Amino acid sequence: MNTSPNIETDVLYIKNMACNCCLLLIQEKLEELGLVVKDISLGKISVGYGETRVSREAISAMLNRYGLDLVHSREDKLVEQIKIAVIELIHQLNNVDSIVRKSDYLVEKLGLSYPYLSKVFSEHEHQTLEKYIIVQKIERIKHLIDSEEYALGEIAYMMDYSSVQYLSNQFKSVTGMTVTEYKSGDRTRKNPIDTL
User: Fold this and answer.
1) In this model, does residue 99 exceed pLDDT 50?
2) Alpha carbon of 131 to those of 6, 98, 114, 135: distances in Å?
3) Fewest C-beta in 10 Å: which of 115, 137, 138, 146?
4) Crossing angle between the packed helical segments 102-110 and 114-125, to the nearest 10 degrees
5) What is the pTM of this model?
6) Domain named HTH araC/xylS-type: which ranges (predicted)?
7) DSSP label at 86?
8) How many CA atoms lie within 13 A of 87 on its CB side?
9) Per-residue model confidence as pLDDT tens digits over 137-194
10) How far is CA 91 from CA 44, 74, 133, 144, in A?
11) By three-state DSSP, how is residue 15 classified?
12) Does residue 78 have a pLDDT over 90?
């Protein structure tokens, strides 16, 4: 990433960035547009403009080709930050158990009260924050099952379920199939985490 001084900078907030592959791809594509990427993280990119200023419309069009979009409103930015924090906690930090409660993590990460975060999220996503977290957990469980490294009891403990039965019930409620059916069936039915 270039950190040249004397370049006009802008911070872009991006919807649906959910993995490190997105970071690499979007950095490359922004540089192809003539932008200087100063800093990049999930959902947020600091760019510098060279001699030619690239329009937000051109940036948005490029992002749209990859299923991403610019975020404009303050509340939409907050919703994306919530999603990224949940994805980090469940999929990347592997700290999904009760060591850190999800609500405490979000409050600390975003600096806002959990009731406010939950309200904004529900209004914009038409599902509760709790439901979103559960769906992300189930997707992570699918990956853990597919890895065949852990017994279901270990996965239940890792994912902060009080029992295998509770995990199994929630798995069936979200996916429409039992864990056993999932294990014996087509395991390619995982969903990209940015679409959940």
Assistant:
1) no
2) 45, 18, 14, 6
3) 115
4) 90
5) 0.74
6) 106-185
7) H
8) 19
9) 999 999 999 989 999 999 998 888 889 999 999 999 999 999 999 988 865 555 555 5
10) 18, 25, 11, 10
11) strand
12) yes
> Which pLDDT tens digit goes with each residue over 9-36?
888 889 888 777 888 899 999 999 888 8
Rounded-to-integer distance, Cα 146 and Cα 170, Å: 18
- In the chain the first and final C-alpha atoms are separated, in Å, by 30
All structural domains of the chain: 8-70 (3.30.70.100), 74-195 (1.10.10.60)
Alpha carbon dihedral 13, 17, 19, 21, in 10-degree steps, equals -90
Give Cα separations from 122 to 14, 111, 114, 133 (angstroms): 19, 18, 12, 12
User: Are 194 and 42 within 8 A, CB to CB?
Assistant: no
